[in-house]
């Protein structure tokens, strides 16, 4: 992990990876693979926004209903959260954006921000899946709040899961690592998924075209293990190629968290 990072003086080229794909494609499921390869944090705008809703602030109350219905949150709220988050110390070597950008305005705003910092997106990983599997994936999902770990009642059940009248007993849905209770997201319903997919189809062709140079596509159909393995190969390739590029740089600069 240390080896592929290149630094000259204090300067480090940040690896900025974006995960693209429809709701339920598996962005949150493959993120740990990217994270463990690069040693950089996963920033999920959905998770950041759910934290805001839990805090019960004015903004939280404003966006709660939008999110439950599966509507996109206004760009300025998302951009403000993200701008603050990427300056944290843990992003000094890069970060993974999960669920961002969702609109062309967000893609362009990200580019403006990165250009100011003399940076760019290093890879846009598009998880391509058969649309017919999305509802099953979304409606069977259970999440662990603190870690962001995701489970699925049939493809990836928690070890503790027991059935009651043929359905998972909520009392037995617990995180494998901590034993803490899992929860189901308020927007993981067939109705909200329809709304989320409308936005996806409206914006994604443009976004995929925008990132055509940095884009890598992974087949997101198949088992979790198969998809994670494909992502792992792509990341190995990425690390080899960026290692070469990074070593061509001869710059001295300041870590982003100190700006
Ligand atoms: P967000 O939290 O980003 O949700 P999303 O993009 O809709 O994506 P999901 O988290 O639903 O899916 P995923 O691809 O991560 O799938 P996962 O890996 O969990 O956004 C939520 C809301 O926040 C938005 O609707 C919007 O309101 C707001 N928002 C967020 N970002 C915004 C932005 N930038 N601008 C404006 N508003 C924004 O997998 C799903 C399930 O399938 C899991 O149970 C998993 O175990 C299972 N699974 C995954 N892969 C496989 C496999 N290969 N085989 C079998 N099962 C699998």
Architecture overview:
This protein has 259 residues and is of the alpha/beta class. It has a domain at 15-131 and 188-243: Rossmann fold. Helix content is 42%, strand content 15%. It has eight helices and eleven strands. The chain has helices at 27-38, 45-54, 58-69, 75-85, 104-116, 134-139, 190-210, 224-247; strands at 7-8, 11-12, 15-20, 42-44, 94-98, 123-128, 141-143, 150-152, 163-164, 167-168, 215-219. The longest helix has 24 residues, at 224-247. The structure holds BIS(adenosine)-5'-pentaphosphate. BIS(adenosine)-5'-pentaphosphate (AP5) binds next to α1, α2, α3, α6 and β8.
Strand composition percent:
15-25%
User: What number is the mean pLDDT?
Assistant: 89
Using the alpha-carbon principal axes, give the shape.
globular
In this entry the ligands are: BIS(adenosine)-5'-pentaphosphate
Task: Spell out the helices and strands N to C.
Answer: EEEHEHHHEHEHEEEEHEH
Specify Rg, calculated over alpha carbons. Answer: 19 Å
Would you identify the CATH architecture of one domain? 3-Layer(aba) Sandwich
Distance from first to last alpha carbon: 25 Å
The CATH class designation of one domain is Alpha Beta
The CATH H-level homologous superfamily of one domain: P-loop containing nucleotide triphosphate hydrolases
CATH topology of one domain: Rossmann fold
**What is the percent of helical residues?**
40-55%
GO molecular function: AMP kinase activity; ATP binding
Keywords: Kinase, Nucleotide-binding, Transferase
Protein name: Adenylate kinase active site lid domain-containing protein
Pfam families: ADK (PF00406), ADK_lid (PF05191)
